[in-house]
Structure formats: C-alpha cells, structure tokens
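Design request, tokens follow.
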C-alpha cells in the first residue's frame, strides 16, 4: 500500500513551524474535554470518545518513541498550565522529525500540489484535481487541509469547499483563539500597548459569564491578547457563540475585591497610584485611577467613598469593551467546519462519501491554546489514517 501527501505549499508543516512562538507546544499535560474543547455541533461526547482512542500518554509515547522527538514538560509558565514542548526548544525539530518518520516509512511527499477538487471514480476510489491541471488517484483520501486560520500558510478554506461540494454540511467557520479589539482602560486602543500581566482573572460579562482558564494578558496596539483573552475570544466573534457578550471583565491581580479593600485601607499616607503600582505595571495603575476618576495625587486615606467604590470596580471587574477581532489572519485556529455527526465515530470516514476521511481543523472541533489543538490533530489524524488504510486494504482484497 502506498501513501502520498499532496502538500499545496512549497514546504511541509508550515503551521507547525509557527506554533508556540516557534517552540511548538505539542501537547498539554492534562485534558478535560468539557473545559478544553469546543464545538458548535452539539455534544462533546463524540470528542471525548475520539480523544480516548488515543489518550495523552499514548500520544506522548508516540511522539517521543515512534517519531523520535524528545519532550520536556514545562510547568506553570506565563499564566498558562503545564505543557509539553520538544526538548530542542524549536518547532522545526518537530516538523523535521514527523517528515523524516513519514519518509522512512515510504510515504511520498509532493510539494506545490494544491488539491482543488475531489471526484469519486466510477469503480471506487478518488481522483484529486490539482491547481496545475494534473490529477492524482487513490483508493482512499484523508482530507486534512486545516481551516481558515493563518491563510498565508495555505489554510484558506479549500477543505471546507471540497467537503461542501461533496454534500457535507459545513458549520460557519469563525476565527478562534484570536486577539480582540477594543479601547484600553482610561483611553483608546494603543494607550497601554506592550503592557502585560500574568495574574489577570478574566471572564465574560453577564451573570454566568464564562471564565478564562489562564491568566496571561497582553495589551496590543488595537486591543487585547494573551492566553486569558484567547481562551474566551471565540465567544465574541460572529458564529462563535449564539449570543456574544459585550465585554470582558478583568480582575487585574486575580485577588478579588476583599483583598483590594484591605490593601487600600492600609495605604494611609501613600498615594493610591503607589499602592496600585506595587501590584501591577505603573502605566496600567495610572490608567485605572484615571478611569475611576481618582486624581493622581490622591492618598489612600483620603479616598472619597465614590472614588473608592469606582476604584475597586476598576481593579476587580473592569469592563473591557470588545469592538472586533483580528480575524483569520491572526487566529490560532478556526472554529466551525464539518460536524462530527457527519463522520463515522470509529474512523472519521464520511457518511456521505465512502473512502473519504476528514481530520483536524476541518472538523467542527477546536481546543484552547496550550497544546490542545495538537492533541486533537494527533488523535483525529491517527483515527482517519487507520480508517483510510483499513478501507484501502479491503478494496485491494476485493479486487
């Protein structure tokens, strides 16, 4: 049995090279499907079952032993949970090891081979129509084109279009794990650009607003980013949630209101800005004072009641109004795609087109930042590959 990878770009695995700030966070340390993965297609039960077919320990062993990538666990870092990285510290080593493992097992890789259409052959199998007008045939096809995030590396939604042309439902794609736009405390976008914190407790506005699992936060020139923001960002983009909240609520130190009430009460003759600057970047402290209407020269002991209340609100539940997002060019992944209900739960084979298997980001599943989307890629890719190989073997036996 022969396997050929039709790679539309001139280099394989470009998105791997970009991942984790070029360090490739290949796996999380732990997974809770309900909190770490998302789908717009209904229950997460199929996701849980699929991930259980290739659990984290097995994924880690496969990467380190079968693929040959020594791994290193990095504990709580930069407001994020523990996760696995290649010991080399470079994403290129991951890409190169995967490509080497493929080639040593006889897999052929054809670059600049952009598949634009798939058509079923009369006697079974598939014909792939390439952009240059050429064709390739095979008994089975694994469609692993990705979604729409970072289209510059070739993920421009072609896979969704191919799936739709074959009769599949495609849930509306949307940018996920994406920076958000909006004004900074005390002013407009850009005022606090470059200021970062690792302590922010972030949640969506509303009585039952979802909470971020991580605490890293970064002010950008046009709004906000960092793990805490990316955790919640899909809830603010069209298609990412039934009803989008209007704002994020930030507790800048994650300590809560009572802690700050005590800190301000103990401030005495110290300037309020001084007390705040001891716990956060001075630029943010000044901006929060301005937003709360507290003069720069105000001492903690001289705070008026209304100033104290406004300042406590600004410190522990500051509303960051979201006006937009950075879109697919800056999104770590895309949400939406082909629902799992349209695929076999045992092999990810299309229920509409036998011999066609789908995996990865083209399917309506994505995870939080922190190695979860790699885990989904490894698990779904393995299942689709095994299914395709089994199907091809049955076809060859029949002929």
């Amino acid at each position: 049995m022969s396997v050929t990878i039709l790679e539309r770009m001139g280099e394989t695995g470009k998105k791997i090279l970009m991942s984790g700030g070029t360090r490739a966070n290949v796996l999380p340390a732990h997974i809770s499907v309900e909190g770490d993965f998302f789908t717009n297609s209904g229950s997460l039960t199929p996701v849980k079952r699929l991930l259980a077919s290739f659990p984290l320990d097995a994924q880690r062993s496969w990467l380190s032993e079968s693929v040959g990538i020594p791994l290193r666990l990095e504990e709580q870092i930069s407001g994020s949970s523990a996760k696995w990285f290649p010991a080399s510290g470079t994403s290129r080593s991951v890409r190169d090891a995967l490509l080497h493992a493929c080639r040593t097992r006889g897999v052929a890789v054809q670059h600049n081979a952009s598949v634009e259409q798939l058509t079923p052959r009369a006697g079974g199998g598939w014909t792939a129509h390439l952009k240059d007008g050429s064709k390739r045939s095979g008994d089975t096809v694994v469609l692993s084109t990705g979604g729409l995030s970072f289209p510059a590396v070739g993920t421009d939604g072609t896979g969704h279009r191919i799936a739709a042309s074959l009769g599949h439902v495609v849930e509306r794609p949307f940018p996920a794990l994406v920076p958000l736009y909006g004004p900074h405390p005390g002013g407009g976008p850009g005022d606090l650009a470059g200021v970062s914190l690792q302590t922010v407790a972030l949640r969506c506005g509303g009585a039952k607003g979802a909470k971020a699992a991580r605490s890293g936060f970064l002010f950008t020139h046009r709004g906000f980013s960092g793990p805490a923001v990316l955790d919640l960002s899909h809830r603010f983009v069209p298609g990412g949630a039934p009803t989008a909240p209007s704002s994020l609520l930030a507790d800048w130190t994650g300590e809560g209101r009572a802690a700050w009430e005590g800190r301000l009460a103990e401030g005495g003759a110290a300037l309020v800005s001084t007390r705040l600057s001891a716990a956060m970047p001075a630029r943010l402290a000044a901006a929060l004072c301005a937003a709360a209407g507290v003069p720069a020269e105000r001492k903690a002991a001289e705070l008026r009641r209304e100033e104290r209340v406004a300042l406590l609100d600004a410190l522990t539940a500051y509303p960051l109004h979201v006006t937009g997002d950075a879109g697919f060019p800056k999104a770590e992944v895309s949400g939406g795609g082909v629902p799992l209900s349209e695929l076999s739960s045992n092999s990810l084979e299309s229920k509409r087109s036998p011999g066609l298997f789908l995996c990865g980001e083209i399917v309506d599943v994505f995870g939080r930042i922190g190695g979860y989307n790699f885990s989904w890629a490894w698990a779904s890719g393995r299942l689709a590959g095994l299914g395709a190989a089994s199907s091809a073997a049955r076809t060859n036996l029949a002929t």
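Comment from the thread starter after seeing the answer: thanks! DSSP finds twelve helices and 22 strands in the chain.
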